[in-house]
Write a structure and sequence with these properties.
With about 600 residues, the chain is an alpha/beta fold. It is built from 22 helices and 18 strands. The strands form 3 sheets. The chain has a 6-stranded parallel beta sheet with strand order 2-1-3-4-6-5, sandwiched between helices. It has a 6-stranded parallel beta sheet with strand order 9-8-7-10-11-12, sandwiched between helices. The N and C termini lie far apart (about 75 Å). The C terminus is likely disordered.
């Protein structure tokens, strides 16, 4: 049998290093599926329950494996379903290649079944490169360019292949005019600013007496360099949500997360500093940064468009985080006065004490912070943790103490619900020997997480270490949005929109061959984590938690307090529980040992 276009596509992607693709079959990609089968395992196909999950898994592959994630979808609805996951990748600057089927070339534009204008559909999310193949000789350079651009620019790209073209005999481009001859390969080079720019940055940083650092996902490969710079500058280090794994939380000058989900120590770091060094972060909430004019600033980012965007920096350095910090270090003067560092470390210690006190406050039946706190002290070395969008993100950000070598991520800029379970599955495929934990709310589980438990059941036997734990905060409420309505809008809980049905998540897990553990007693939280972390198969931990434990920000404004009171006055249906839990959290944050 002669090589088809589809055969060539997989051969070419294999040459680029692709070993796994996430997707769901359909007649728009029939030729591609048959050819993938003919690779005889050279490229694994992971069958998901929905194409959105394929794109989210491709995004997570980029995050956890550092390689281009690849997803595959059929024409029409399959293509549409990819979009949310692709936007997750695009907004978090992750390299993902989408391979999408299309109806036959003769049918395009005829209002045929599943005939959509896919070029326009993907134009925004894959604007770096989206092309539709029309002839066999064109496919070679389409694949090469799409992969190379995705990898080099950390962008989403898309190649669309009509289903009739997939099964045609492959033709390499000829030597005639109008042909192009592309090749495989990319040697990445770490960009570093010139010495003059580094000297200007060092002058600003050396002049500061109270230096703060803010690191994000762009610094994930620069842990040692960030720590070295912080030690030299006597700085405290705050972490944006996607940068949680940059600096271990057991380092005494790491203030933890910043922003609405952040710690009081990070708030105080930004309020007290006179100099800000921002590395690999696009943290969006300017109200949690130093006030304008308070601090001088230096920023390092590989993407010029992210520089000087959140705070008016004096020196903006375009460069790789690790390489730029290594080049900058010789120009930095060690700080002799360590008073600022001592203040930062005292605030960090108090923030962790506060987090523990808040986590151990009573609730009905379980305080959700305690679930995260009890996990934190049990996190295995080298584990990977994913968190969904919602209150689970808050407790992930504040209560988990990451050690060096651990990994974790969330849907950062898009903040889509339903990311934790597909992220965890992708993490497990990328690192089958590592334990993986997904922290999800019951809203996300009902949205798509339960379906992807079936994917876990299908594949877990192939993983060297079977430990994948899906922890569900089962509070029968879309709790984060409920609290947003109370605090931001001053409105009471709207039960018709916010209350969720009670679902037996643990029992469902048992029905499909996984292990399920339901926990309703706070004293069982720790032992349940122990059982799950020693299980011989994936586990669903159904934690029945109190929705009315408030995810308090590190700094409460007068407006927020006023709106909260307004929500109670307007007829909050759970006012008693809300007031009791809020009082407990506030008292626990300022009075050690008190309830």
């Amino acid at each position: 049998m002669s090589q088809t276009v589809a055969d060539f596509l997989w051969m070419r992607l294999h040459a680029w290093g692709v070993r796994r693709v996430f997707g769901y079959p359909g007649d728009g990609i029939g030729g591609l599926m048959a050819a993938l089968n003919r690779t005889e395992g050279a490229i694994d196909f992971v069958q998901v329950r929905h194409e959105e999950m394929a794109a989210l898994m491709a995004c997570a592959t980029a995050k956890f494996a550092g390689e281009v994630g690849v997803c595959l979808a059929t024409s029409g609805p399959g293509a549409v379903h990819l979009l949310n996951g692709l936007y997750d990748a695009a907004l978090d600057h992750q390299p993902v290649l989408a391979i999408v089927g299309q109806q036959a070339r003769t049918a395009v534009g005829s209002h045929y079944q599943q005939d959509l204008d896919l070029q326009s559909l993907f134009k925004d999310v894959a604007g770096a490169y989206v092309q539709t193949a029309s002839t066999p000789a064109q496919v070679r350079h389409l694949i090469d360019r799409a992969y190379r651009i995705a990898k080099a620019e950390r962008r989403v790209t898309c190649v669309i292949l009509p289903n009739d073209l997939q099964m045609e005999a492959m033709e390499q481009p000829s030597d005639e005019h109008g042909m192009t001859h592309s090749g495989v390969g990319l040697e990445p080079t770490a960009a570093v600013p010139d010495e003059a720019a580094l000297v200007r940055a060092a002058e600003v940083l050396n002049a500061g007496q109270k230096v703060a650092m803010l690191v994000g996902a762009g610094a994930l490969d620069a842990t040692d360099e960030v720590i070295d710079a912080a030690e030299r500058l006597g700085a405290g280090v705050a972490k944006a949500l996607l940068g949680k794994a940059v600096v271990p939380d057991d380092i005494p000058f790491c203030t933890g997360s910043i922003g609405l989900l952040g710690t009081k120590a990070s708030w105080e770091l930004m309020q007290g500093c006179d100099t800000l060094l921002m590395v690999g972060s696009g943290f969006p909430y300017a109200e949690f940064l130093p006030k304008k004019g308070q601090a001088r600033g230096v920023q390092i980012d590989i993407k010029p468009g992210m520089l000087g965007l959140r705070y008016p920096m004096e020196v903006n350095l375009v460069g790789d985080a690790a390489a730029t910090l290594r080049a900058l270090l010789p120009f930095l003067h060690p700080k002799s006065d360590r008073a600022w560092r001592q203040e930062v470390e005292a605030n960090v210690a108090e923030s962790w004490d506060e987090a523990q006190r808040s986590a151990m406050q009573p609730a009905t039946p379980i305080n959700p912070q305690r679930v995260a706190w009890e996990l934190s002290e049990r996190l295995p070395d080298g584990c990977i943790v994913t968190a969904d969008s919602g209150t689970s993100t808050v407790w992930y950000a504040r209560d988990l103490r990451f050690r060096q070598g651990m990994m974790g991520s969330v849907s950062g800029s898009l903040a889509t619900m339903g990311c934790a379970v597909p992220y965890a599955i992708a993490a497990k495929f990328a690192h089958p020997t590592r334990p993986v934990v997904a922290m999800a709310g019951d809203g996300a589980m009902q949205m798509n997480g339960m379906a992807e438990l079936i994917t876990i059941a299908k594949y877990w036997h192939t993983w060297a270490d079977p430990r994948l734990i899906v922890m569900v905060l089962n509070n029968h409420d879309l709790a984060y949005v409920t609290w947003e309505e109370r605090v931001q809008a001053g409105d009471p809980k709207f039960e018709a929109s916010q209350s969720l049905p009670d679902v037996p998540y643990a029992h469902f897990a048992e029905l499909i061959g996984l292990r399920g553990i339901r926990v309703e007693d706070p004293d069982r939280v720790g032992p349940a984590w122990d059982e799950a972390l020693s299980s011989d198969r994936p586990v669903v931990l159904d934690m029945v938690t109190d929705p009315n434990v408030p995810p308090l920000p590190p700094h409460i404004t007068l407006k927020q307090a006023r709106q909260f009171v307004n929500s109670l006055v307007k007829g909050e249906p759970e006012a008693g529980s809300v007031l009791i839990n809020s009082a407990r959290q506030l008292v626990g944050s300022i009075m050690p040992g008190k309830e």
